[in-house]
Amino acid sequence: MAKKRAKVGFVGLGLMGTPMATNLVKAGFPLQVWNRAADKAEALAAIGATRTVTATDAARGADFVIVMVADDAALDSVLFGESGLSRGLKRGAVLVNCSTTSPAMSYRAATALRSISVRYLEAPVMRSVQAAREGKLQMLIGGSREDFAKAEAVLRIMASDIHYIGEIGKATTMKITLNLLAAAMAQGYAEFFVLARKTGIPFETMMEVLHVSPVDSQLFRSAEQTVVNPGGRPNFYLKHLLKDVNLAMDLAKQMEVPVPLTAGVRQMLVAAKNLGRGDEDFGTMLELMAQWAGVPLRG
Ligand code: NA7
Around Cβ 132, how many Cβ atoms within 10 Å? Predict the structure, then answer.
């Protein structure tokens, strides 16, 4: 089990990484942080984290290093790039990848890190920014049980529900299939919303009925922030949902599983991204669908 004195590195201070790292500092772990855009590390430095110049430096002397970056390319770069983590990680350290990346990337990372005696765990997360702030993420673990046991005390600071899924690749696969479901639900919600709106059912009535119905979901409450809290900060970027849907499509192709619904949702997400909406919350799909349906989003 990790002691409070264990030194932790953290790389990737985006929407999710920042609150996760903040909780580690608040819990008393000495934290070394690095982010590609250096300004995002300022808030962490202000509460006592040590800001490093390179990812290599964030790994030096650390017992555990958490990575929370966008995708495979980002993970590859922060691990194996010129000033990457692999150059600073000590023998016996555990590298925990919380990003949603491909199973192939996990196998490659685990194998390369094993050759320098570094352990690798996948730990992709469900839930969003608010849960990250509250240390209440849901975390899926792939890797050895022994490595999980070593890292568990650190992971429990960030996550309230942790599921050990299996060997490397399994947690990532579970996460990708869950996000396939999330994408389908987001599109279904948008279609429900615009069709009900266009028939003239008031927004309040729709919500009153939906939120006590058997088809309700927390995901819908998140998506409808676009309506009730316009201009609010994103929780989950549309571009990352598209990335996850692409990962799901790759997996389905490999496994020869037909996923017609996911293929359709992917078309919508590609179109939305091409319209410049990738850096908005995934709930922006609702706005686009309302436009295409010729129905006002609000009012
Ligand atoms: P964000 O807020 O988009 O954060 C992404 C992070 O990844 C951010 O720190 C980025 O650094 C970093 N990043 C992206 N590309 C690179 C490269 N090439 N090199 C180094 N660092 C990079 O995403 P979230 O926090 O919402 O989500 C993170 C993951 O969890 C993702 O897999 C989601 O699907 C789930 P930047 O600040 O741009 O310099």
Answer: 25
